[in-house]
Amino acid sequence: MGSRDRDTKSLQDKLKVFFKKGAAPARGELSLTPELERELSADTPLPRRLRAAKDLADRAPHSRMQDGVAERVWRCTRDLLEEEGAEARHGELALLRALADALQERPGAMRTVLFRYLRETHAGHAPEDAAPRFRLLHALTGNGKNIACFEEQIGAFLVEWAPRIQQPPLLVECLQLVTNVVKYNASSLDEDVVCGIVDVACGVCCGRGAEGAVGAGVALLEAVASYSLLPRAALRAFVATLARTVNLEQHAQSSWKLMRQVLGADIGYAALHELVELLHEGDAEAGLARGCVFYVSMALWGPRRVPTLRVSHLAVLPAFLKALELRAPVVTYEVVLALQVLVTRAPHELHEPAWEAVLDVLRAVHEHDRELRPRNEPLHARLHAVITSVEQLQQAGQLGGAAAALLELLDGKSRHPVRRSNSSPEMSSSWKLPREPEPEPEPPRALLPDDLILLPAAPETTSAAMSLHASKKAAKKSADMRVSCEAIPEEMSGTSPLQPAPLSPPSPSAAAAAPAVLKTASDSAVGGDDLPPLARSKRSNTISVMSPARRAREPRRREGRAGAGGGGVTPSFVFLQLYHNMSTYPITPPVPGEAPGALDPLAERPLRVAGAQHERTVKNLDLVPPIETHKVGVLYAGPGQQDNEVLILRNEFGSVRYADFLTQLGTLVSLDAADEQPDLFLNLEKGGKDGRYTYVWTDDVMQVLFHVATAMPCSPKDPNCNEKRKYIGNDFVSIVYNDSGADFNIHTIKGQLNFCIVVVEPFEHGMNRVFVKTKDERIRTTFLAHQDTYVVSDTNVALLARQIALHCALASQISQSLTLGGPGAAYASNALERLRLIKRLRRRVEAERLAAAARAPEPYNAPSDLHTRVAIDDFNDYT
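Above: the chain sequence. Below: its structure as tokens.
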């Protein structure tokens, strides 16, 4: 570039060059001059050729390659790949790698030439060439993202190449490249290629030879399940591999997440069948069997069960019995954990044959427990905990008719320890002596009932706090078993020690005969004050209408004198103290640096409210709920209804996905039974005029009433659905489930308000698009920040739509209050609105008191004595 060109260059271009990252030179043209071509030819000595090749490789990333340069370089240097010395071959491969990087921007025939070379020479290449050859493939494919010109051959080539890689770091990089091929080019992979990729990943995961290779293998399996169609032929290897990797602590979470994804897909039943078949084979190793037991229990009755699997428990429990034949303690322990979760979380799902299968499995576990020498204490304790839970279910009448099998399981040493009753001093003090070796068992003899004492299942404690501490200590002690066996984390699996499900109280005779057990926080017999700390929400104690748990609790009966109150301080005493404190001195001192103001007799003084006008104000105060309330309309737009308001309002039902959307949007509430729930604030009429049910969502501080158009009836006398429009048209926000396939116009629904519309458009594969439309400019520009379009699944679309609708409702309410009342009347919350009503009422009462004092006869109406002459109310009736 000449000096004139540099002078005419713009300042912007100069700054771009100056601030360019790494101070890299501007990209120029890469050409092959005759001199360089001679240096690369076979007539030049080898050292000079390698030096020229290295210089060209260094220049290639910073230059723009001219047409035909790569082909000419390939013709000049391809003989270096056949040299006996590794240095020559590696130098040529490095040059080809640089050319492949440059060819990413200009695909052509040279990409096919380089890939054909790698494929044809793969079988006979030297082992030391594996790394540079892979670097060439990495550059040629852009780490698996660009397979143009060899889409049909790349899959089979990778399946052949990956198993031959021996270096662990190189193996991890190769698996990552294959993962990208699956993610970015799944449509180019045939079914047999996908099966081969699954086999490669399974072999790496089960080999466990390379550090990080197992994680890369699991990631490859996840890519196959997410971006491609998992072939049925590869399903057995797929689930067997995940059953092994879930035993590795660092891969347990990712393995369970992937297996849950597969079990919830269309191939879920087939995957569950493969898990059961692996257990039925009986010759699986302990790790494989344990993983299968874990997946089956978690999918069917665990805390994060797969809802799409509708399988009887009787179909899988015999497989657990078969797995116990391995006599592996780790498998037996996993089976006990699975049964514990089943009998505590889902006992109502077990019918009589299923209960018999459960007891058969427990009997087999007990036999294995007796065979272990020395005894496995965690397994023994867990087994007896499960049996205790089953026994409690039987006492409550929830065992399902398998009482005989349970009695057989509880017979003799299989349940409670039995000792002989003896009142001699020697026997009563023998527990203090050192323990001696146990003698040989004596032949059993018949014992009278009076000779036996049934020990309780657990010792009695004096408080719930001690029982909680004991349960935590036992849980911590029992966790050692899982750690010692490459355990699946209990936090993830949900198989930590669980309390039994709430049971119906047994009969008095059964309660008297039952052994003493520890009380838990979930027992109905434990009073509210006996709960452990943090068991109750402090927030619910400040809002009286939001405490359903407190309403359901029976009133506590206290012993003492008749008519004694339930608390220690009466309300009249509290009022009296507040009255005297507020009427004598301000609650807070003056602001530092400011002169103290004169004491106002009316300041902070309780004022008695009287008069019809003020009583109406108090009634208006009761109309403002103590929690935040919002009303949101819900509409279904079917095919061809996107611009027809009447058709949309007349819909009495929607699609199946719309029905699922409603169930996740809120809780179904009966309008006729609304009076029985004082914490509900509904504006719908009863008797069927506005329907029989509606949907409501609540939390501790907020309540949302959904005006669902499909839940409201249509009347022949109201063809235009004005009864529905009077509710939905006056809502600030509406949710439109747009199943019409066309764009929804926000002006389709007429109404006084309806400032915002949350549109939900269902797509294929269980996905939905959610976005907001608004016709208020201030809401759009000032208050509403989330105006982006979201794509979410059916599982989360209701949650997202509800949250966006709440934000829009609050923004609309603030905007409307500013429009009607100005900046000083901006809406903030119902609590603030209640406070504003109280202050307005107080100002009116104070004005009346001052006016009455001014009307007093002389000399009591002097301005200096006006405030001191205000009468003090008589509150004796309240104290």
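The CA atoms of residues 779 and 815 lie 7 Å apart.
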